[in-house]
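Issue 218. Parser rejects a valid record. Input:
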Amino acid sequence: MRFSPSTLLPLLLALPSATAYWKGFNLGANLPSGPCKSQSDWQQDFTVLRSLPGSFTSARLYASSDCNTLANAVPAALATGTKLLVGVWAEDYNHFNAEKAALQAAIQQYGHDWIIAVSVGSEDLYRGDTSASTLAGQIYDVRGMMGSLGAGSVQVGHVDTWTAWVNGANTAVIQACDFVGTDGYPYFQGSTESDAYNVFWDSVSQVRNVVNNVKPGTWVWITETGWPVTGGNFGASVPSRDNAQMYWSSVACAAFQQAHTFWYSLQDYTSSPSFGVVDANFNQIYNLAC
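Output the parser choked on:
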């Protein structure tokens, strides 16, 4: 099942005019086996990204201070020509300040050309960890810090589930964002693989419509989506290599041509469900060619 051209047209018209988009993967600060990643681990991740079909040169990180993420990842990124969508955890107060300090230290040491953008928080609204007004204040706080460091051109926004973005109680966060990162998983909506394409793009369309009404001109980035290769069924959703392959071929290959997109995930073979596209030896689990 696919959108017809007449259905797709409003989606395409809502997109900013551009010739290229960031495309990459979500990367955690820990190895699947548990320990924190070292600089060499990060460099291996970034090297693997470049070796995949599509030659990916960007990645999204969730943290700045946890596991010394930026202290280890930034030199690895610079060595491999990788750009980073940086994460700053917003919960709790002390953690938030530690995250800001780590980002500040990285910019002071390496400049800011390696930064794609900064996301303050990840799915905080979905989890109910904070209020929209508090999170908006933290976004303004980080933007102010970036400006004081000579990095005022770097966009600062937030990543959350599509359901959080379409919730009218969260418009203050949209207003605070330079970009809006939306996470959508048809798997967790109980979709069949055959309907997953429509289910995903419907969520993106809903977010774009809300964002355009609240803060016209703000770009919506696809910051998480994917389909698991292993794990339990979720409603009508069935994890499998074949289903993950079909979801990649239909959704990823289209998204990379339409929006800044960060896939979930590169490697998570110890998780259940597992969304990773490479196994423990960094071999592709399914065909990633578009």
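Fixed in the parser; the record now loads. Residues 30 and 105 are 21 Å apart (CA to CA).
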